[in-house]
């Protein structure tokens, strides 16, 4: 079965919803999520959205902080574009109905690592959920947006799926996407003149991560298979402070806690407060950029043979903690940790994919009519390390840029006839009866990436990881071509593609920069260059 839309947006996080709501209601839009409408990392985001909203601050400061945090690998044109559009994005969100925290009638701005000023707009410590709830309501009100939940995109439809070979266009084009219904496993095509990838990052490629299960790098893998360049995949950001507790799956302890005075300590000895170690590593202490803090924690954990360090908030009043961090306070309390009296056990986890599908500042990829926005994309904003709270910002600014570009292109030539496309080949109906192969490969992949391609890397470790991933790829590809595909298998295959891209990009970089630290190349090279991977097909 095939349905035709003007625009198909794959992913309903902040990037996808911002784009959908910024398009005129005359367009027929399909908004697809493999989970619920409110989903993805966007729903989990805590700290907030960075923007210059205060007379004491200015765009140059925000640009400089972003460029410095990114170890000078960010692209200044992209940084300036996104940062100068930030205040408008905050106003747009407020116009949609988001109620950010205020103090004395002004927006309350919090602070995070790497920021020279307070500039993080937030809703308590659950900014993402608050924003997503409002935008989901606006989406549901729009008759032109059809929401497909529990629908997983399998692959993009490109020229190779066109029935009429003679109509093949010179440049590669995208015509929509094949989508599997998670309940029935039926695969249908959703055709559209414009397709937008907004599928988020690939954090699930690592065993320990702050990311929700949906972050299996599907968009990056689909774009790569379709022929798009993928940039800077070696720069996986590890958040320094995930809650370390056996019953806390992927729970983040926001950087805003350090922004408000949180202290990182080693475990206490003889009842004394543990050593405050961050100043042994960087003069900015707990507010150094994330790559430095995560590496320092990793170093201290390995040196001292410990599984976690501690974030100490006990010097701050209980009422302040309850008021500013209600979500984190409640989660800690649920697990028996009273953060007003006990330091919080924390350890680093994979958090953000700085690299992704190459786009320009209109969100266009290498394939005609295919756009990418949000964490799936590489715009040049983050360089070798993302500045805290710049990601949600990028989602809104770039979601709006794509909407603008689609509007301009469609205005020039509104007439569009959907080509005749090949239906998904459903001949593979042999049920996948060896689920153990999928769960085993999934665990083996994530463990290998954690052990060998983590915070500290070396040539040997990358080689070991490469060998394991090649083997897994062979097995999974054989399975994929023989049996009926399932959502787990789709995600595993995509994770393997992302793992390969990360390992190969890391092997190309013969220096240490930002989030990529190699024991074999400890120095930073004088010239900062991106790692651009081009598919062979
Ligand atoms: P996501 O929000 O991840 O959404 C992806 C969407 O794509 C989901 O709807 C998912 O269902 C869908 N999808 C994925 N694959 C498929 C497929 N194959 N088929 C169909 N649908 C698919 N950044 C900040 O700037 N500030 C913060 O405070 C902050 N806090 C964070 C806290 C946590 C715990 C985490 C994990 C991240 C945080 N980040 C923060 C990062 C930020 O939240 C994300 O980078 C951002 O939300 C990504 O938005 P997105 O729309 O690109 O993707
Ligand atoms: C956090 O709240 O620490 C996360 C912020 C971010 O990832 O930008």
Account of the 3D structure:
The chain has 537 residues and is an alpha/beta fold. It contains 15 helices and 20 strands. The protein has helices spanning 14-22, 40-44, 59-69, 76-84, 86-96, 127-141, 218-226, 256-259, 290-304, 318-324, 326-334, 390-412, 435-452, 459-482, 487-508, and strands spanning 2-10, 29-32, 49-50, 102-103, 106-107, 109-110, 120-121, 145-148, 151-158, 174-181, 187-197, 230-231, 236-243, 263-265, 309-312, 344-353, 356-358, 370-372, 377-378, 532-533. Strands 1, 2, 8, 9, 10, 11 and 18 form a 7-stranded mixed β-sheet that branches. Strand 4 (102-103) and strand 5 (106-107) form a beta hairpin. Helix 3 (59-69) packs across helix 4 (76-84) and helix 14 runs antiparallel to helix 15 (487-508). The two termini are 28 Å apart. The model has no long low-confidence stretch (mean pLDDT 94). The structure holds flavin-adenine dinucleotide and succinic acid. Succinic acid is lined by residues 46-47, 254-256, 388-389, 391.
Sheet with the most strands, sense and barrel status? 7 strands, mixed
Overall pLDDT score: 94
The radius of gyration computed from the alpha-carbon positions, rounded to a whole number of angstroms, is 23 Å
**Which strand-content bin applies to the residues?**
15-25%
Ligand catalogue = flavin-adenine dinucleotide, succinic acid
Bin the helical content: 25-40%
Count helical runs: 15
Given as residue ranges, the uncertain stretches (5+ residues, pLDDT < 50) are: none
Number of strands: 20
């Amino acid at each position: 079965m095939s349905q035709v839309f003007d625009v198909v947006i794959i992913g309903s996080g902040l990037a996808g919803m911002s784009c959908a709501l910024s398009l005129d209601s005359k367009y027929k839009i399909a908004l697809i999520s493999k989970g619920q409408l409110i989903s993805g990392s966007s729903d989990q985001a805590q700290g907030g959205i960075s923007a210059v909203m205060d007379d004491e601050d200015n765009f140059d400061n925000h640009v400089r902080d972003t460029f410095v945090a990114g170890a000078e690998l960010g692209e200044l044109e992209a940084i300036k574009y996104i940062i100068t559009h930030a205040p408008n994005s905050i106003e747009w969100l407020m116009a949609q109905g988001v109620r950010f925290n205020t103090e004395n009638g002004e927006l309350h701005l919090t602070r995070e690592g790497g920021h020279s000023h307070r500039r993080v707009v937030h809703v308590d410590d659950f900014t993402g959920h608050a924003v997503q709830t409002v935008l989901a309501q606006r989406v549901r009100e729009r008759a032109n947006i059809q929401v497909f939940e529990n629908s997983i995109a399998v692959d993009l439809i490109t020229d190779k799926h066109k029935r009429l070979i003679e109509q093949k266009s010179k440049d590669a084009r995208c015509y929509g996407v094949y989508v599997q219904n998670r309940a029935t496993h039926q695969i249908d095509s959703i055709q559209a003149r414009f397709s937008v990838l907004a599928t988020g990052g690939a954090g699930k490629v690592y065993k320990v991560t702050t990311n929700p299960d949906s972050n299996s790098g599907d968009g990056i893998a689909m774009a790569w298979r379709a022929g798009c360049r993928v940039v800077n995949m070696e720069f996986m950001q590890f958040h320094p402070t995930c809650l370390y507790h056996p019953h806390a799956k992927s729970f983040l302890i926001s950087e805003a806690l350090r922004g408000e005075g949180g202290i990182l300590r080693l475990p206490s000895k003889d009842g004394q407060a543990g050593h405050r170690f961050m100043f042994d590593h960087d003069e900015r202490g707990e507010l150094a950029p994330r790559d430095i803090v995560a590496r320092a924690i990793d170093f201290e954990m390995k040196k001292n043979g410990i599984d976690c360090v501690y974030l100490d908030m006990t010097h701050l009043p209980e009422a302040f903690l309850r008021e500013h961090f209600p979500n984190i306070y409640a989660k800690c309390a649920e697990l028996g940790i009273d953060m007003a009296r006990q330091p919080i056990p924390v350890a680093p986890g994979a958090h953000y994919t700085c690299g992704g599908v190459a786009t320009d500042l209109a969100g266009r990829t290498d394939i005609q009519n295919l756009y990418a926005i949000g964490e799936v994309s590489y715009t040049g904003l983050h360089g070798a390390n993302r500045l805290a709270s710049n990601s949600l910002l990028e989602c809104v600014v770039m979601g709006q840029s794509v909407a603008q570009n689609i509007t301009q292109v469609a205005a020039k030539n509104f007439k569009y006839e959907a080509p005749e496309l090949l239906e998904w080949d459903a001949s593979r109906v042999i049920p996948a009866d060896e689920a153990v192969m999928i769960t085993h490969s999934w665990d083996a992949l994530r463990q290998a990436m954690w052990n060998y391609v983590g915070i500290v890397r070396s040539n040997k470790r990358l080689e070991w990881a490469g060998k394991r991933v090649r083997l897994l790829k062979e097995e999974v590809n054989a399975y994929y071509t023989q049996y009926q595909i399932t959502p787990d298998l789709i995600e595993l295959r995509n994770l393997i593609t992302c793992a390969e891209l990360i390992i190969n990009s890391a092997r190309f970089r013969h220096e240490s920069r930002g989030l990529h630290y190699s024991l074999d190349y400890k120095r930073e090279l004088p010239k900062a260059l991106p790692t651009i991977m081009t598919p062979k097909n």
